[in-house]
Amino acid sequence: MSQLHISSSPHIHTNKTTTSIMLDVIIALLPATIAGFLIFGLKALSIVLMCISVCVISEVLFNKIVKKEDTTDDLSAVVTGLLLGLNLPATTPLWQAAVGSIFAIVLVKCIFGGIGCNLVNPAITARVFMLIAFTDLAKPAFPVDSVATATPLVQLAEGSEPNLLDLFLGNCGGAIGETSKLALLIGGIYLIIKGVISWVMPMSFIGTVFIFSFLVKDFSLTAALYQVLSGGLFIGAFFMATDYVTSPATPKGKAIFGIGAGIITVLIRLWGIYPEGVSFAILLMNILNPYINIWSRRKLFGRTK
Amino acid sequence: MVFYLKGVHLPHRKNTANFVPVRMTVPKSVTIPTSMHIGAPAMPIVKKGDSVKVGTLIADAGNGISAPIHSSVSGTVIEIFDLLMSNGSTAPAIKIEADGEQTPDENIQVPNVADKADLVKAIKNSGLVGLGGAGFPTYAKLSVERKIEELVINGAECEPYITSDSLTMEQYSDDIVYALETLLKYFDIGKVIIGIENNKQKAIKIIQSAIKDNEKITVKILPSVYPQGGEKVLIYHTTGKVVPEGKLPIDVGCVVLNSTTTAFIGKYLKTGMPLIEKTVTVDGSAVKEPKNIIAPIGTALSDVFEFAGGFKTEPKKVLYGGPMMGITVPNMSYPIIKNTNAVLAFDEKETIISKTTACIRCGACINACPFGINPPAIAKGLKNEDFEQMKSAGATLCMECGCCSYVCPASRPLVANNRLAKQALREHSKKEGK
Question: Which overall architecture, per CATH, does domain A18-294 show?
Fold first, then answer.
C-alpha cells in the first residue's frame, strides 16, 4: 500500500480562502457598479474597467520584475481596481485612472511586500493621491441626465438641501460607485451575512457620523441624515474601512477605528477645506491601525500576570 | 453571568450517531503498547511464550504516575519489541497471538471498596486512563486531598465524526450514574455537572432520566461549538470558573472526567474486568461501512477497518481521533490504544494539502481562539526568536484545539507554529533556569 499522508492537525478546513473572500467582495460591489453605470453611463464603466485591468497588469508585471510568484489569482488586485474605479468621478480621464491604479498597486501595495503587507489601503491612498495630483477631480461628475450644479456635500455646505430619497437611491452627484446607498447597503449586508466583514465597523463609522453631526447640527435629524447619506460614507464604511490588512482584528478595535474615522469625517466635512472627508479619515485611521491593534488586544483566558 | 468562549461551528458529520457499537471478531493477534498514557510506561511482567487470558495483568504500572496494562485477548505472548508510537516516543509493546477463545482470567473479581483509598486503588488496578483525550491516569486525577467542589463529566464530544462517547452515555447511563454515586459516597464532592452538547438530545434525555432525583447531579446542556470539550472551556461553561494559566483544574476545586471514563468506572466496580477494550468510531470518507466498533485494545487499525467493510476508496490519511486534534498514523499496523475514541480514514479528496498563502490579517484566527491567543504574533515571535512576544501573545495558553488553523483563509500552519513556540519557550526557560 502506498504511504499514508502525515500532517499536523487540524485535518479539516473552512471553505473560505483569500480568493473566495475577494470574490465575495467583488460580488458585493456589483450592485454599486451597476448603479454607477445606470446613473453615469458607459464612461463610468470604462473607468472601472480601466482601473481593474491596470491594477491586475501592474501586479503581474511587478511580480515578474522582482521575480516573485504571481499573486493575482487571489483577486485582491481586482478588488483594489474596482474600489478605486468606483471612488472616481465619471469625468476622470482614463489616463488618470490608469496612473492612479499603478500608484495603488505598485507604490502602496507591492513595494511593501504585496497582499497583507501594505500599511494603508491602496484604493483609498490612490484616491487621495489623485485628488491632490489632479485637482480637477475635486469637481465631481453628475448623473447623465441631471442639471445639478454641485454634489450633495457641496450643496449642504452652500446651505441648500438635497432630496433624501435621491441621496439614498443615488440620483445625485459624486463618484461612480458612492452615490447609490441602496446598492452599497445590499452589498454590505451580503458581506456581513457571508461573514466576510463584521457589522461593527460600518455600524460604528456611520453611527458616529450620524450622532456627531446630529449634535453639532443643532439636533436636526434631517441634517444628520444628509451627512450619513452623502458622499463616500457608505462605500467607505462597508468596503474601504473594512479592508482586513489596514483595519483592526478584534470587534473592540473595529469600534475604535470606526468611531475615530467617523469623527474625522465630520470634522473635515464641516470645518475642513475639502467637502468630503471619508477618504482622509480612513487613511488617517489606517496609519493609527497598528496602535489600535495593540490597544484592542483580546484578554487572554486565565492569564493572571 | 458566563459568556461562552469563542470557538468555531464545525460540520458535525456524526454519521454513526445511530450505530449501536458492535463487538468485532477477535483479531489473530494484538499489539499492546506499554505507553498508552501520560507518565512512565508500564513494565512488562510477561515474557515470550507465556500464556495469558482476557484481563491478565501483563505490565505493571511504572514508577510515579503510570498505569498497569492487561491482556485484551486470551492466547500466547509471541514478541516484546520496541514500538515507535505516533506521538514520537518509543516504548516496549507486547504482541499476543489470540487463541480466539477469549477465556477470562479466573483471578478477576469485583473490587472490594470500603473507603476512598480502596476506590482510588481499584481505579488504579483497572488500568483506567482518561479515555477522551490525553490518557492521563484516572487514579492520579482522583488522588486529591481537598474537597472537589465540582466534578465535571465531559460529554461534550465536540469533534466531528466521533459518536463513541454519546453512544456510551446512551447505552451505559446506569454505569455512569453508579460510578457517580460511588464517587459521591467516598469523595467530598460538592456537585456533579454533566456537560453535553445540544446536538446529542438522545443522550441528554437518557442521562437525565438515569440521574432520577439525585440532587447532586445535574446535566448542563451546552451549545455545539468546538472546542466545547476542551477541559478549561468545559469547566468555564459548566461552573463559571477560570483555571489560571499553568494551573490544574483541581486548583480551582474541579475535576473533569470523560463520560466514557466514568462509565468504565461504573462497569469495573460491578464486574472487575480491567480496561481491555474500547468503543471506537470508525468513519471517514474512505471507509465503506462507518460504524461504532468495540475492539480489543491492541487491535491493528487494519483489522478494525476490515471489520468496517474495508475501504471504498484508497485511504490517503488515517487518524487516531477526530479531524481537529487527531494524530496521523504512518501505516495501519498501529494498534487501538486505551484513549482511542475514533479512527478515521480519508480518501484523496479529503486529504487536504492546501497551499499556504500570505497572511491577509483578517483576524479570523484571533477571533476564533477560545483563549484570546494571537497566532500571527506568536508566529512572528517564533521567526524572530522573540520569547517575550511568543509569551505575551499567549503561546503557553494554547491547547492546540485547531480553531485558528481551521478558519485561516490563507491555510497558514498556525497550530503547528504554536506548538513550535511552546517547545521553544520550554527549552528557553530550561536554559534560563540553569
Answer: Orthogonal Bundle (1.10)
